[in-house]
């Protein structure tokens, strides 16, 4: 009885955190002093970051077993995607395409969104949860 309620609360919290992170991204683009939509390219990284983990989870038996090449490649690719999403606004600010304030907002939004994605995999990544009881 209580397990679905706790999962429901976690889902609401994760949705709020993700909305907050995307709000930071939109503010970095839409505020009048910045007025530049180049930081929106970070959205590609948001969609790409969970893909290696989903593929590795599908191909491997479990995360708890000894380290496998598939899981190690998943971690490497995910780390590369996250670092690239932080590096893109820094490079754009360095070449003066965007301002440093917009860069700070994008990096804050990245931090919130990627922590939300990590939280999603921590909460809903268990295989012992049966979704049929919802």
Automatic annotation (TrEMBL):
Topological type in the membrane: Multi-pass membrane protein
Q: Which GO terms describe its cellular component?
A: endosome; membrane
List the coiled-coil residues.
none
Q: Which InterPro entries match?
A: Vps55/LEPROT
Q: Transmembrane region positions?
A: 38-56, 68-92, 98-121
What keywords is this UniProt entry annotated with? Membrane, Receptor, Transmembrane, Transmembrane helix
Tell me, which GO biological process terms does this entry list? late endosome to vacuole transport via multivesicular body sorting pathway
> What protein family does this chain belong to?
Belongs to the OB-RGRP/VPS55 family.
Q: Which protein is depicted?
A: Leptin receptor overlapping transcript-like 1
Q: Which organism is it from?
A: Biomphalaria pfeifferi (Bloodfluke planorb)
């Amino acid at each position: 009885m209580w397990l679905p309620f706790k999962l429901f609360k976690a889902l609401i919290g994760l949705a709020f955190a993700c909305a907050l992170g995307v709000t930071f991204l939109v503010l970095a683009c839409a505020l009048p002093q910045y007025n530049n939509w180049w930081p929106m390219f970070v959205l590609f990284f948001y969609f790409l970051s969970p893909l290696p983990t989903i593929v590795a989870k599908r191909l491997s038996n479990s995360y708890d077993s000894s380290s496998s090449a598939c899981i190690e490649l998943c971690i490497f690719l995910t780390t590369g995607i996250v670092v690239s999403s932080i590096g893109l606004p820094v490079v754009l600010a360095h070449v003066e395409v965007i301002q440093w304030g917009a860069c700070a907002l994008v990096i804050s939004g990245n931090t919130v969104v990627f922590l939300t994605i990590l939280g999603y995999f921590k909460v809903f990544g268990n295989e012992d949860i049966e979704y049929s009881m919802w």
